[in-house]
Specification:
86% helix, single chain, mainly alpha
Amino acid sequence: MALDVIAQSIRDAIAPVFLMSGVATMLSVTTARFSRIVDRYRTLMNTTPQTPTIAAELTIMYRRSRVMHWAIAACTICALLVCLVIAVMFVSTELDFSPIHAISLLFVTSMIALITGLLLFLYEIHLATGTISVLGKVHGAGSRKKTK
């Protein structure tokens, strides 16, 4: 009988484990982008002379790094909360109590953290696109001639 309960707990924990896989992928993507932002920032800092274009790009890179920092933090919080959901599920099986409200609260909070991380990621993409647009205008690459 106890084996059946443990088997059911494992089956119940599979969905959060798949969620953890998705969050881990998101963390991988955000940390890779963060790393590229930091590398670009360092490259620009070592560029001489410091032109107004470079100064503007440095400002945008700093802003992007802060946004990515918070996106990584939100996704990490989501992962930690999902781990807590799984742990509470197993502990409740061992101690034979019903943690329905705790699991619901942890899961909803983890979804809010994931949504926050995704929105911050989307905002960082917006900032990156804006950087390309601004630099394109400065260098004249963004303008197209209209043809009739």
